[in-house]
Amino acid sequence: MPVFAYLLLLLMLQVWQPLHAATTVDALARQYFPQADSVSPFEGDPLAAAVYRQGKLLGYLLRTTDIAPIPAYSGEPITLLVGLDSAGIISGLEVTRHSEPILVVGVSEQDLRHYVDQYRGVSVQKQVKIGGAPREGYVTIDGISGASITAMVMNATVMKAVKKVAESRGIPLSGDSGMLVPATAAVAQADAEVAANAPAWWFGSSSEPFWVSVWRERVWQIAVLSCALAVLTVILLFQDWLARRPRLLRVVRTGFLLFTFCFIGWYALAQLSVIHVLTFINALLHQFSWESFLVDPLIFILWGFVALTLLLWGRGVYCGWLCPFGALQELIHQLAQRLGIREYRFPDVVHERLTALKYVIFVALFGLSLQSIGYAAKAAEVEPFKTVIVMHFIRDGLFLWYAAGLLLLAIFNRKFFCKYLCPLGAALAIPAPLRIFDWLRRRKECGRPCQICAIQCEVQAIRPTGEINPNECHYCLDCQVTYWDDHHCPPLSEKRIRREKSRAALELINK
Known about the structure:
single chain; alpha+beta; two-stranded parallel sheet; elongated
Protein backbone atom coordinates (compact mmCIF):
# COMPACT_ATOMS: atom_id res chain seq x y z
CA MET A 1 0.00 0.00 0.00
CA PRO A 2 2.78 2.58 0.70
CA VAL A 3 4.16 2.02 -2.80
CA PHE A 4 0.70 2.45 -4.32
CA ALA A 5 0.10 5.63 -2.30
CA TYR A 6 3.45 6.98 -3.48
CA LEU A 7 2.54 6.32 -7.13
CA LEU A 8 -0.83 8.00 -6.63
CA LEU A 9 0.86 11.07 -5.12
CA LEU A 10 3.29 11.30 -8.02
CA LEU A 11 0.41 11.03 -10.47
CA MET A 12 -1.47 13.87 -8.79
CA LEU A 13 1.65 16.04 -8.83
CA GLN A 14 2.25 15.32 -12.49
CA VAL A 15 -1.24 16.26 -13.65
CA TRP A 16 -0.97 19.55 -11.78
CA GLN A 17 1.67 20.73 -14.17
CA PRO A 18 0.30 23.40 -16.54
CA LEU A 19 -0.60 22.29 -20.05
CA HIS A 20 2.55 22.42 -22.21
CA ALA A 21 4.44 24.13 -19.38
CA ALA A 22 7.73 23.72 -21.19
CA THR A 23 6.34 25.45 -24.29
CA THR A 24 7.05 29.18 -24.55
CA VAL A 25 5.95 31.76 -27.09
CA ASP A 26 9.52 32.15 -28.35
CA ALA A 27 9.91 28.39 -28.77
CA LEU A 28 6.69 28.13 -30.75
CA ALA A 29 7.63 31.18 -32.82
CA ARG A 30 10.79 29.41 -33.93
CA GLN A 31 8.82 26.24 -34.53
CA TYR A 32 6.32 28.06 -36.73
CA PHE A 33 8.99 30.25 -38.34
CA PRO A 34 12.31 28.32 -38.33
CA GLN A 35 14.23 31.32 -39.74
CA ALA A 36 13.00 33.77 -37.08
CA ASP A 37 15.51 35.62 -34.89
CA SER A 38 13.21 38.02 -32.99
CA VAL A 39 9.62 38.30 -31.79
CA SER A 40 7.92 41.56 -30.84
CA PRO A 41 5.55 41.92 -27.87
CA PHE A 42 1.85 41.33 -28.44
CA GLU A 43 0.47 44.66 -29.55
CA GLY A 44 -2.00 46.35 -31.88
CA ASP A 45 -5.69 45.80 -32.42
CA PRO A 46 -6.25 42.89 -32.52
CA LEU A 47 -3.29 41.78 -30.45
CA ALA A 48 -0.55 39.97 -32.35
CA ALA A 49 3.22 39.57 -32.09
CA ALA A 50 5.29 40.23 -35.20
CA VAL A 51 8.01 37.69 -36.07
CA TYR A 52 11.18 38.88 -37.88
CA ARG A 53 14.37 37.64 -39.48
CA GLN A 54 17.06 40.31 -39.70
CA GLY A 55 14.40 42.99 -39.60
CA LYS A 56 12.24 41.40 -42.31
CA LEU A 57 8.67 40.54 -41.34
CA LEU A 58 7.96 36.80 -41.55
CA GLY A 59 4.49 36.79 -40.03
CA TYR A 60 2.56 37.01 -36.77
CA LEU A 61 1.79 35.07 -33.65
CA LEU A 62 -1.67 35.44 -32.16
CA ARG A 63 -3.56 34.08 -29.17
CA THR A 64 -7.11 33.18 -30.08
CA THR A 65 -8.57 34.21 -26.71
CA ASP A 66 -7.25 37.76 -27.26
CA ILE A 67 -9.31 38.01 -30.44
CA ALA A 68 -12.13 35.44 -30.56
CA PRO A 69 -12.82 34.06 -27.05
CA ILE A 70 -15.61 31.67 -28.03
CA PRO A 71 -16.83 29.56 -25.06
CA ALA A 72 -16.39 25.82 -25.52
CA TYR A 73 -18.01 22.78 -23.88
CA SER A 74 -16.71 23.78 -20.44
CA GLY A 75 -18.09 27.33 -20.78
CA GLU A 76 -14.57 28.77 -21.13
CA PRO A 77 -12.65 29.53 -24.34
CA ILE A 78 -9.76 27.42 -25.60
CA THR A 79 -6.47 29.27 -26.05
CA LEU A 80 -4.53 28.42 -29.19
CA LEU A 81 -1.27 30.04 -30.25
CA VAL A 82 -1.35 30.40 -34.02
CA GLY A 83 1.36 31.30 -36.51
CA LEU A 84 0.28 33.30 -39.58
CA ASP A 85 2.86 34.14 -42.22
CA SER A 86 2.94 37.36 -44.22
CA ALA A 87 1.13 35.68 -47.14
CA GLY A 88 -1.82 34.73 -44.95
CA ILE A 89 -0.92 31.05 -44.57
CA ILE A 90 -1.23 29.34 -41.19
CA SER A 91 2.25 28.09 -40.30
CA GLY A 92 1.50 26.42 -36.98
CA LEU A 93 -1.08 25.85 -34.30
CA GLU A 94 -0.85 24.74 -30.67
CA VAL A 95 -3.37 24.38 -27.84
CA THR A 96 -1.73 26.22 -24.92
CA ARG A 97 -4.57 26.39 -22.41
CA HIS A 98 -8.02 24.86 -22.06
CA SER A 99 -10.61 23.72 -19.54
CA GLU A 100 -12.16 21.07 -21.74
CA PRO A 101 -12.73 17.81 -19.84
CA ILE A 102 -13.15 15.85 -23.06
CA LEU A 103 -9.61 16.75 -24.16
CA VAL A 104 -8.29 15.34 -20.90
CA VAL A 105 -10.53 12.30 -20.48
CA GLY A 106 -11.70 11.34 -23.95
CA VAL A 107 -9.12 12.40 -26.54
CA SER A 108 -5.62 11.07 -27.05
CA GLU A 109 -2.67 13.37 -27.63
CA GLN A 110 -2.23 11.82 -31.08
CA ASP A 111 -5.81 12.67 -32.11
CA LEU A 112 -5.48 16.25 -30.87
CA ARG A 113 -2.12 16.64 -32.61
CA HIS A 114 -3.56 15.28 -35.86
CA TYR A 115 -6.41 17.76 -35.64
CA VAL A 116 -4.31 20.90 -35.11
CA ASP A 117 -1.67 19.86 -37.66
CA GLN A 118 -4.31 19.93 -40.42
CA TYR A 119 -4.39 23.73 -40.24
CA ARG A 120 -0.80 24.11 -41.39
CA GLY A 121 -0.77 25.48 -44.90
CA VAL A 122 -4.40 26.67 -44.79
CA SER A 123 -4.87 30.15 -46.25
CA VAL A 124 -7.03 32.82 -44.62
CA GLN A 125 -8.62 33.16 -48.04
CA LYS A 126 -10.19 29.71 -47.60
CA GLN A 127 -13.12 28.57 -45.53
CA VAL A 128 -12.65 25.52 -43.31
CA LYS A 129 -15.29 22.89 -42.65
CA ILE A 130 -15.08 19.82 -40.43
CA GLY A 131 -15.87 16.49 -42.04
CA GLY A 132 -18.48 15.70 -44.63
CA ALA A 133 -18.23 15.73 -48.40
CA PRO A 134 -15.73 18.06 -50.15
CA ARG A 135 -17.20 21.39 -51.12
CA GLU A 136 -16.07 24.08 -53.53
CA GLY A 137 -14.33 26.97 -51.79
CA TYR A 138 -13.72 25.00 -48.58
CA VAL A 139 -10.86 23.16 -46.98
CA THR A 140 -12.22 19.99 -45.34
CA ILE A 141 -10.44 18.66 -42.27
CA ASP A 142 -11.04 15.71 -39.97
CA GLY A 143 -12.75 16.37 -36.66
CA ILE A 144 -11.86 14.90 -33.28
CA SER A 145 -13.60 11.62 -32.56
CA GLY A 146 -15.70 11.99 -29.43
CA ALA A 147 -15.08 15.74 -29.20
CA SER A 148 -17.07 17.16 -32.10
CA ILE A 149 -18.27 20.31 -30.35
CA THR A 150 -14.76 21.10 -29.14
CA ALA A 151 -13.39 20.68 -32.65
CA MET A 152 -16.07 23.01 -34.02
CA VAL A 153 -15.29 25.66 -31.42
CA MET A 154 -11.55 25.49 -32.11
CA ASN A 155 -12.20 25.74 -35.83
CA ALA A 156 -14.38 28.81 -35.44
CA THR A 157 -11.94 30.39 -32.98
CA VAL A 158 -8.87 29.87 -35.16
CA MET A 159 -10.34 31.01 -38.46
CA LYS A 160 -12.10 34.03 -37.00
CA ALA A 161 -8.92 35.11 -35.18
CA VAL A 162 -6.56 34.72 -38.16
CA LYS A 163 -8.94 36.56 -40.47
CA LYS A 164 -9.15 39.49 -38.07
CA VAL A 165 -5.37 39.67 -37.78
CA ALA A 166 -4.93 39.34 -41.54
CA GLU A 167 -7.45 42.09 -42.20
CA SER A 168 -5.88 44.45 -39.66
CA ARG A 169 -2.33 43.86 -40.99
CA GLY A 170 -3.16 44.30 -44.67
CA ILE A 171 -3.05 40.66 -45.67
CA PRO A 172 -5.62 40.28 -48.48
CA LEU A 173 -8.82 38.34 -47.88
CA SER A 174 -11.28 37.08 -50.44
CA GLY A 175 -15.00 36.56 -49.90
CA ASP A 176 -16.77 36.89 -46.57
CA SER A 177 -14.54 36.50 -43.49
CA GLY A 178 -17.17 34.59 -41.49
CA MET A 179 -16.91 30.89 -40.78
CA LEU A 180 -18.44 28.41 -43.25
CA VAL A 181 -19.67 31.09 -45.63
CA PRO A 182 -20.33 29.89 -49.21
CA ALA A 183 -17.69 30.88 -51.72
CA THR A 184 -20.16 31.70 -54.47
CA ALA A 185 -23.61 33.20 -54.75
CA ALA A 186 -24.88 29.97 -56.25
CA VAL A 187 -23.81 27.96 -53.22
CA ALA A 188 -25.34 30.55 -50.91
CA GLN A 189 -28.63 30.36 -52.80
CA ALA A 190 -28.60 26.55 -52.59
CA ASP A 191 -28.06 26.69 -48.83
CA ALA A 192 -30.92 29.14 -48.46
CA GLU A 193 -33.27 26.89 -50.43
CA VAL A 194 -32.31 23.84 -48.34
CA ALA A 195 -32.85 25.71 -45.08
CA ALA A 196 -36.20 27.03 -46.25
CA ASN A 197 -37.67 23.88 -47.77
CA ALA A 198 -36.08 20.84 -46.07
CA PRO A 199 -37.37 19.44 -42.77
CA ALA A 200 -35.08 20.04 -39.79
CA TRP A 201 -34.00 16.41 -39.55
CA TRP A 202 -33.01 16.08 -43.22
CA PHE A 203 -29.31 15.63 -43.92
CA GLY A 204 -27.84 18.81 -45.37
CA SER A 205 -30.12 21.28 -43.65
CA SER A 206 -27.85 24.09 -42.55
CA SER A 207 -30.40 25.32 -40.01
CA GLU A 208 -30.37 22.25 -37.77
CA PRO A 209 -28.34 22.13 -34.55
CA PHE A 210 -24.97 20.47 -34.91
CA TRP A 211 -25.79 17.72 -32.43
CA VAL A 212 -28.57 16.48 -34.71
CA SER A 213 -26.08 15.65 -37.45
CA VAL A 214 -23.83 13.91 -34.92
CA TRP A 215 -26.70 11.68 -33.76
CA ARG A 216 -27.49 10.89 -37.38
CA GLU A 217 -23.91 9.92 -38.17
CA ARG A 218 -23.72 7.60 -35.14
CA VAL A 219 -27.17 6.11 -35.55
CA TRP A 220 -26.03 2.49 -35.67
CA GLN A 221 -23.91 2.90 -32.52
CA ILE A 222 -26.91 4.50 -30.81
CA ALA A 223 -29.06 1.56 -31.91
CA VAL A 224 -26.58 -1.02 -30.57
CA LEU A 225 -26.24 0.76 -27.23
CA SER A 226 -30.00 1.23 -26.92
CA CYS A 227 -30.58 -2.48 -27.55
CA ALA A 228 -27.94 -3.37 -24.95
CA LEU A 229 -29.56 -1.11 -22.37
CA ALA A 230 -32.93 -2.67 -23.15
CA VAL A 231 -31.42 -6.13 -22.58
CA LEU A 232 -29.91 -4.96 -19.29
CA THR A 233 -33.28 -3.59 -18.23
CA VAL A 234 -34.85 -7.01 -18.89
CA ILE A 235 -32.06 -8.66 -16.88
CA LEU A 236 -32.75 -6.35 -13.95
CA LEU A 237 -36.51 -6.79 -14.12
CA PHE A 238 -36.22 -10.58 -14.22
CA GLN A 239 -33.24 -10.85 -11.91
CA ASP A 240 -35.01 -13.34 -9.63
CA TRP A 241 -35.60 -15.72 -12.53
CA LEU A 242 -31.94 -15.46 -13.55
CA ALA A 243 -30.66 -15.80 -9.98
CA ARG A 244 -32.39 -19.18 -9.73
CA ARG A 245 -30.35 -20.27 -12.77
CA PRO A 246 -26.78 -19.42 -11.70
CA ARG A 247 -25.06 -20.97 -14.73
CA LEU A 248 -27.16 -18.93 -17.13
CA LEU A 249 -26.61 -15.81 -15.02
CA ARG A 250 -22.82 -16.29 -15.17
CA VAL A 251 -22.93 -16.62 -18.95
CA VAL A 252 -25.20 -13.59 -19.33
CA ARG A 253 -23.17 -11.44 -16.96
CA THR A 254 -19.79 -12.37 -18.45
CA GLY A 255 -21.11 -11.74 -21.95
CA PHE A 256 -22.46 -8.35 -20.97
CA LEU A 257 -19.19 -7.39 -19.29
CA LEU A 258 -17.32 -8.30 -22.48
CA PHE A 259 -19.73 -6.13 -24.48
CA THR A 260 -19.27 -3.26 -22.04
CA PHE A 261 -15.49 -3.39 -22.23
CA CYS A 262 -15.17 -4.04 -25.97
CA PHE A 263 -18.01 -1.96 -27.46
CA ILE A 264 -18.86 0.74 -24.93
CA GLY A 265 -15.25 1.13 -23.88
CA TRP A 266 -12.59 0.37 -26.46
CA TYR A 267 -14.70 0.92 -29.57
CA ALA A 268 -17.17 3.69 -28.74
CA LEU A 269 -14.98 5.36 -26.07
CA ALA A 270 -18.13 5.96 -24.02
CA GLN A 271 -16.47 5.69 -20.62
CA LEU A 272 -18.26 7.91 -18.12
CA SER A 273 -16.04 9.98 -15.85
CA VAL A 274 -16.32 12.12 -12.76
CA ILE A 275 -15.46 15.03 -15.05
CA HIS A 276 -18.86 14.64 -16.71
CA VAL A 277 -20.45 15.02 -13.27
CA LEU A 278 -18.37 18.09 -12.44
CA THR A 279 -19.04 19.66 -15.84
CA PHE A 280 -22.77 19.16 -15.38
CA ILE A 281 -22.66 20.77 -11.93
CA ASN A 282 -20.57 23.62 -13.34
CA ALA A 283 -23.11 24.14 -16.11
CA LEU A 284 -25.97 24.25 -13.60
CA LEU A 285 -24.11 26.91 -11.60
CA HIS A 286 -23.35 29.03 -14.64
CA GLN A 287 -24.91 28.89 -18.10
CA PHE A 288 -26.71 25.61 -18.72
CA SER A 289 -27.36 24.36 -22.24
CA TRP A 290 -28.63 20.91 -23.21
CA GLU A 291 -26.95 21.19 -26.61
CA SER A 292 -23.53 21.04 -24.97
CA PHE A 293 -24.36 17.60 -23.60
CA LEU A 294 -26.24 16.32 -26.64
CA VAL A 295 -23.18 16.46 -28.91
CA ASP A 296 -21.96 13.06 -27.67
CA PRO A 297 -24.99 10.76 -28.08
CA LEU A 298 -23.59 7.64 -26.40
CA ILE A 299 -22.43 9.54 -23.32
CA PHE A 300 -25.79 11.34 -23.16
CA ILE A 301 -27.78 8.10 -23.45
CA LEU A 302 -25.64 6.38 -20.84
CA TRP A 303 -26.06 9.24 -18.39
CA GLY A 304 -29.81 9.22 -18.96
CA PHE A 305 -29.91 5.49 -18.24
CA VAL A 306 -27.70 5.92 -15.17
CA ALA A 307 -30.01 8.64 -13.82
CA LEU A 308 -32.99 6.31 -14.23
CA THR A 309 -31.31 3.29 -12.67
CA LEU A 310 -30.02 5.37 -9.76
CA LEU A 311 -33.65 6.01 -8.84
CA LEU A 312 -34.77 2.42 -9.33
CA TRP A 313 -31.80 0.21 -8.45
CA GLY A 314 -29.01 2.43 -7.10
CA ARG A 315 -25.36 2.95 -7.95
CA GLY A 316 -24.57 -0.68 -8.64
CA VAL A 317 -26.13 -0.96 -12.10
CA TYR A 318 -23.58 1.32 -13.72
CA CYS A 319 -20.62 0.25 -11.60
CA GLY A 320 -21.41 -3.42 -11.93
CA TRP A 321 -22.58 -3.65 -15.54
CA LEU A 322 -21.82 -0.57 -17.66
CA CYS A 323 -18.43 0.80 -16.60
CA PRO A 324 -15.79 -0.38 -19.13
CA PHE A 325 -12.90 -0.11 -16.66
CA GLY A 326 -14.95 -1.83 -14.00
CA ALA A 327 -15.82 -4.58 -16.49
CA LEU A 328 -12.14 -5.08 -17.30
CA GLN A 329 -11.28 -5.43 -13.60
CA GLU A 330 -14.13 -7.90 -13.13
CA LEU A 331 -13.02 -10.02 -16.11
CA ILE A 332 -9.42 -10.03 -14.89
CA HIS A 333 -10.54 -11.15 -11.44
CA GLN A 334 -12.72 -13.91 -12.90
CA LEU A 335 -9.77 -15.20 -14.93
CA ALA A 336 -7.55 -15.11 -11.86
CA GLN A 337 -10.06 -17.16 -9.90
CA ARG A 338 -10.22 -19.75 -12.67
CA LEU A 339 -6.44 -19.99 -12.57
CA GLY A 340 -6.60 -20.64 -8.86
CA ILE A 341 -4.98 -17.37 -7.75
CA ARG A 342 -5.80 -16.69 -4.14
CA GLU A 343 -7.88 -13.63 -3.37
CA TYR A 344 -6.89 -11.20 -0.61
CA ARG A 345 -9.57 -9.27 1.26
CA PHE A 346 -9.01 -6.53 3.77
CA PRO A 347 -10.48 -6.95 7.25
CA ASP A 348 -13.86 -5.26 7.59
CA VAL A 349 -12.53 -2.43 9.74
CA VAL A 350 -9.78 -1.65 7.19
CA HIS A 351 -12.20 -2.01 4.27
CA GLU A 352 -14.65 0.49 5.76
CA ARG A 353 -11.92 3.10 6.21
CA LEU A 354 -10.52 2.57 2.73
CA THR A 355 -13.94 3.11 1.15
CA ALA A 356 -13.82 6.68 2.45
CA LEU A 357 -10.89 7.48 0.14
CA LYS A 358 -13.06 7.79 -2.97
CA TYR A 359 -15.28 10.35 -1.24
CA VAL A 360 -12.24 12.37 -0.20
CA ILE A 361 -11.00 12.33 -3.80
CA PHE A 362 -14.42 13.35 -5.13
CA VAL A 363 -14.74 16.25 -2.69
CA ALA A 364 -11.23 17.42 -3.61
CA LEU A 365 -12.07 17.31 -7.32
CA PHE A 366 -15.35 19.09 -6.72
CA GLY A 367 -13.53 21.86 -4.85
CA LEU A 368 -11.04 22.19 -7.71
CA SER A 369 -13.85 22.35 -10.25
CA LEU A 370 -15.34 25.37 -8.47
CA GLN A 371 -12.06 27.16 -9.08
CA SER A 372 -11.39 25.77 -12.55
CA ILE A 373 -12.84 22.80 -14.40
CA GLY A 374 -9.47 22.61 -16.16
CA TYR A 375 -7.62 21.98 -12.90
CA ALA A 376 -10.19 19.36 -11.96
CA ALA A 377 -9.86 17.67 -15.35
CA LYS A 378 -6.10 17.31 -14.89
CA ALA A 379 -6.41 16.02 -11.34
CA ALA A 380 -9.15 13.62 -12.44
CA GLU A 381 -6.49 11.46 -14.07
CA VAL A 382 -6.68 9.64 -10.77
CA GLU A 383 -9.21 7.78 -12.91
CA PRO A 384 -7.15 5.55 -15.24
CA PHE A 385 -9.90 5.63 -17.85
CA LYS A 386 -8.02 7.71 -20.41
CA THR A 387 -4.96 5.48 -20.31
CA VAL A 388 -6.79 2.15 -20.42
CA ILE A 389 -10.02 2.82 -22.33
CA VAL A 390 -9.41 5.84 -24.55
CA MET A 391 -5.73 5.38 -25.40
CA HIS A 392 -5.68 1.57 -25.22
CA PHE A 393 -2.53 1.61 -23.03
CA ILE A 394 -0.58 3.54 -25.69
CA ARG A 395 0.89 5.93 -23.19
CA ASP A 396 4.21 6.52 -21.50
CA GLY A 397 5.40 7.12 -17.99
CA LEU A 398 3.58 7.20 -14.70
CA PHE A 399 0.07 7.07 -16.16
CA LEU A 400 0.75 3.67 -17.70
CA TRP A 401 2.34 2.28 -14.54
CA TYR A 402 -0.52 3.61 -12.44
CA ALA A 403 -3.17 1.96 -14.64
CA ALA A 404 -1.21 -1.30 -14.82
CA GLY A 405 -0.84 -1.30 -11.02
CA LEU A 406 -4.58 -0.97 -10.53
CA LEU A 407 -5.28 -3.85 -12.89
CA LEU A 408 -2.66 -5.94 -11.12
CA LEU A 409 -4.40 -5.27 -7.81
CA ALA A 410 -7.68 -6.41 -9.39
CA ILE A 411 -6.19 -9.89 -9.69
CA PHE A 412 -5.92 -10.24 -5.92
CA ASN A 413 -8.70 -7.93 -4.73
CA ARG A 414 -11.94 -7.72 -6.69
CA LYS A 415 -12.40 -4.24 -8.24
CA PHE A 416 -9.91 -2.53 -5.92
CA PHE A 417 -10.08 0.82 -7.73
CA CYS A 418 -13.88 0.84 -7.81
CA LYS A 419 -14.19 0.12 -4.09
CA TYR A 420 -11.59 2.51 -2.76
CA LEU A 421 -10.46 5.17 -5.23
CA CYS A 422 -13.10 5.84 -7.90
CA PRO A 423 -14.48 9.41 -7.58
CA LEU A 424 -17.21 8.63 -10.12
CA GLY A 425 -18.35 5.76 -7.92
CA ALA A 426 -18.43 8.16 -4.97
CA ALA A 427 -20.50 10.65 -6.96
CA LEU A 428 -23.00 7.94 -7.89
CA ALA A 429 -23.07 6.55 -4.35
CA ILE A 430 -24.15 9.85 -2.80
CA PRO A 431 -27.75 9.65 -4.18
CA ALA A 432 -27.84 5.82 -3.99
CA PRO A 433 -29.84 5.67 -0.72
CA LEU A 434 -32.61 7.66 -2.42
CA ARG A 435 -33.55 4.77 -4.70
CA ILE A 436 -37.29 4.14 -4.83
CA PHE A 437 -37.29 0.34 -4.70
CA ASP A 438 -35.28 -2.32 -2.91
CA TRP A 439 -34.93 -5.12 -5.44
CA LEU A 440 -32.32 -7.19 -3.62
CA ARG A 441 -34.07 -9.74 -1.43
CA ARG A 442 -33.01 -10.45 2.16
CA ARG A 443 -34.29 -12.83 4.86
CA LYS A 444 -34.77 -12.14 8.54
CA GLU A 445 -31.99 -14.63 9.25
CA CYS A 446 -29.46 -12.63 7.16
CA GLY A 447 -26.73 -11.52 9.52
CA ARG A 448 -28.64 -12.91 12.49
CA PRO A 449 -26.87 -15.31 12.59
CA CYS A 450 -26.23 -16.24 8.91
CA GLN A 451 -23.09 -14.66 7.40
CA ILE A 452 -22.85 -16.67 4.17
CA CYS A 453 -23.74 -13.80 1.80
CA ALA A 454 -21.49 -11.37 3.70
CA ILE A 455 -18.57 -13.80 3.39
CA GLN A 456 -19.23 -14.51 -0.29
CA CYS A 457 -19.61 -10.83 -1.28
CA GLU A 458 -16.20 -10.05 -2.76
CA VAL A 459 -16.83 -6.30 -2.90
CA GLN A 460 -17.71 -6.49 0.81
CA ALA A 461 -20.98 -4.60 0.38
CA ILE A 462 -22.93 -6.66 2.95
CA ARG A 463 -22.64 -5.60 6.56
CA PRO A 464 -22.19 -8.19 9.34
CA THR A 465 -25.73 -7.35 10.45
CA GLY A 466 -27.03 -8.57 7.07
CA GLU A 467 -27.96 -5.29 5.36
CA ILE A 468 -26.69 -4.56 1.85
CA ASN A 469 -24.86 -1.23 1.72
CA PRO A 470 -26.31 0.57 -1.34
CA ASN A 471 -23.26 2.85 -1.47
CA GLU A 472 -20.95 -0.09 -2.11
CA CYS A 473 -23.13 -2.68 -3.89
CA HIS A 474 -22.12 -3.38 -7.52
CA TYR A 475 -25.27 -5.37 -8.27
CA CYS A 476 -23.46 -8.54 -9.29
CA LEU A 477 -26.46 -10.59 -8.00
CA ASP A 478 -24.21 -13.16 -6.30
CA CYS A 479 -26.13 -12.75 -3.04
CA GLN A 480 -29.38 -13.34 -4.92
CA VAL A 481 -28.05 -16.62 -6.27
CA THR A 482 -27.41 -17.69 -2.68
CA TYR A 483 -30.82 -16.34 -1.63
CA TRP A 484 -32.59 -18.79 -3.96
CA ASP A 485 -30.18 -21.72 -3.49
CA ASP A 486 -31.69 -24.27 -1.12
CA HIS A 487 -28.31 -25.94 -0.69
CA HIS A 488 -26.43 -22.81 0.42
CA CYS A 489 -29.01 -20.57 2.07
CA PRO A 490 -29.49 -22.00 5.63
CA PRO A 491 -33.23 -21.15 6.00
CA LEU A 492 -33.99 -22.68 2.59
CA SER A 493 -31.69 -25.59 3.31
CA GLU A 494 -33.54 -26.35 6.53
CA LYS A 495 -36.87 -26.29 4.70
CA ARG A 496 -35.49 -28.56 1.99
CA ILE A 497 -34.20 -31.05 4.56
CA ARG A 498 -37.58 -31.10 6.34
CA ARG A 499 -39.33 -31.69 3.02
CA GLU A 500 -36.96 -34.50 2.14
CA LYS A 501 -37.47 -36.13 5.56
CA SER A 502 -41.23 -35.82 5.23
CA ARG A 503 -41.11 -37.33 1.77
CA ALA A 504 -38.93 -40.16 2.96
CA ALA A 505 -41.29 -40.85 5.90
CA LEU A 506 -44.29 -40.94 3.56
CA GLU A 507 -42.50 -43.34 1.28
CA LEU A 508 -41.77 -45.65 4.25
CA ILE A 509 -45.41 -45.49 5.34
CA ASN A 510 -46.63 -46.25 1.82
CA LYS A 511 -44.37 -49.28 1.69
